[in-house]
Amino acid sequence: GGGGRGMRVCQNAAELDRLFDQATREAEAAFGDGAVYLERFFAAVRHIEVQIFADTHGTVRALGERDCTVQRRHQKLIEEGPSPALDAQLRRDIQDAAIALARGVNYVGAGTVEFIYDEATRQFFFIEMNTRIQVEHPVTEMTTGIDLVREQLRVAAGEPLSFGMEDVAAIGHAIEVRLNAEDPGRNFAPAPGTITAFHAPAGMGVRVDSAAFSGVTIPPAYDSMIAKVVAWGRSRDEATARLIGALEELRIDGVPTTREFALNVLRHPAWSAGPPATSFLERWPDVIPPPADIAAAPGVEPAAPETVVTEVNGRRFTVRVHGLSARSAATASGSTPRSRPAAPKSPRDGADAAGPTLRSPLHGALVRVLVAEGDTVRRGQPICIVEAMKMENDVVAHRDGTLEKLLATPGVSVSVGDALAEIV
């Protein structure tokens, strides 16, 4: 489904019934249609998509491709263009295929034709066509200089495309990061809440698309994305460096976000070589930061320092602030931080490792319980499913034992830290 929703990977027949039901429910919740289909699963591929545009005069143009290989749960997190994996011939072949598809259905408007690409065999396979502008369209706008939304309005008015093929050669490289209200350290669990501080970066080659501001509430019923940060450079390395600087300058407080995760990816040696496959997170789990600790006990300073980038007289400094209170201590890069109190345990941890209570790690609605009272369960086994931001999330057992009591029933709303079950 759109945005990767309703997709489940089934490794064996024993999982089929549960995953089929879960995919059906998620598709119904997101699209109002629970129809699903089965297709071959490729474990290690790249996600390549071609931006196309067609007018009512029979003109179809390809505006280059985007590489969307860094993903979680089949949903894009970082997009770039052009793809570092394609040579000139493959680029022509995949763009020709996209144009042929658009012509074949008499398509009009902006669209994205998506493929998976197997680097080992140099084969690409059609996934789907998105018949709309996409989240990652700024990548194409920044490398071609063409305003895609403006072109949509022109085409809707019956005008021809304002550009020819000679105008769409990609110049430089652009990379986009999606900033989501999610906690990467808890399997990217949705994290709705109120943004208490928001500061967007700026600078040459940097673009931020967002409606966020200090005081806005991110509701649990909608998509988790709160901002897009995009950087352009003359090369992939320059674009990466600018994007790192922009993310360091960005500040979003009040809710966990994917900012630190994105920085870890962009600084990772594997990124410099080009993301190898959609299995990036599985191969390099070290890019996933520890769970966020947003909730602190009254009067106790959080232990995690905040990194702030500031510029003074043309020189950029990275400053780490330890605990936002009257006893705060700021240290410049390379200096030794002062000692500070340890952070309290957050209810977002989902359970007390030594205790019997399994707690909800996120806000949402309990949609299904997968076990019964008296069942023997193992650590990591799915116990129930909580839906948040149109995604279903497994809540797993925090210990081996017997499920003594269920403390919540399907249909109820749960908050972070709410007790779901007792495992003894």
Walk me through this protein's architecture.
It is a single chain. With 424 residues, the chain is an alpha+beta fold. It folds into 3 domains: 42-287, D-amino Acid Aminotransferase, Chain A, domain 1, CATH 3.30.470; 302-337, no CATH class; 347-423, OB fold (Dihydrolipoamide Acetyltransferase, E2P). Helices cover 20% and strands 33% of the residues. The protein has 8 helices and 25 strands. It has helices spanning 13-31, 88-104, 137-144, 148-156, 236-249, 259-267, 269-272, 280-283, and strands at residues 46-54, 60-72, 75-81, 109-118, 123-130, 173-180, 182-183, 189-190, 193-194, 197-199, 206-209, 217-218, 225-233, 251-253, 306-312, 315-322, 329-332, 357-359, 364-369, 376-377, 382-388, 391-396, 401-406, 413-414, 419-423. The longest helix is centred in the N-terminal third of the chain and has 19 residues, at 13-31. The two termini are 39 Å apart. Residues 295-303, 324-329 and 333-351 have low confidence and may be disordered.
Q: What is this structure's SSE topology?
A:
Blueprint: H1 13-31, E1 46-54, E2 60-72, E3 75-81, H2 88-104, E4 109-118, E5 123-130, H3 137-144, H4 148-156, E6 173-180, E7 182-183, E8 189-190, E9 193-194, E10 197-199, E11 206-209, E12 217-218, E13 225-233, H5 236-249, E14 251-253, H6 259-267, H7 269-272, H8 280-283, E15 306-312, E16 315-322, E17 329-332, E18 357-359, E19 364-369, E20 376-377, E21 382-388, E22 391-396, E23 401-406, E24 413-414, E25 419-423
Antiparallel strand pairs: 1-2, 1-4, 2-3, 3-6, 4-5, 6-13, 7-8, 9-12, 10-14, 11-13, 15-16, 16-17, 18-25, 19-21, 19-24, 20-23, 21-22, 23-25
Helix pairs in contact: 5-6
